[in-house]
Amino acid sequence: xxxxxxxxxxxxxxxxxxxxxLMDIGCxxxxxxxxxxxxxxxxxxxxxxxxxxxxxxxxxxxxI
Length: 64
Hints:
This protein has helices at about 5-10, 15-25, 50-55; strands at about 30, 40.
């Protein structure tokens, strides 16, 4: 849980958008890291994140 998300998301709605996109492709949970701007998703099985970075060029997407 990140308490700062509540304060940051109204000013930067793209954080919420990225979290929603990650959930839509199969992540079990998402969270903004620290004070941002990083958002990460946790998943049990491999998730194809390539479509996010292709469709939304502003996002830098990495999968490890």
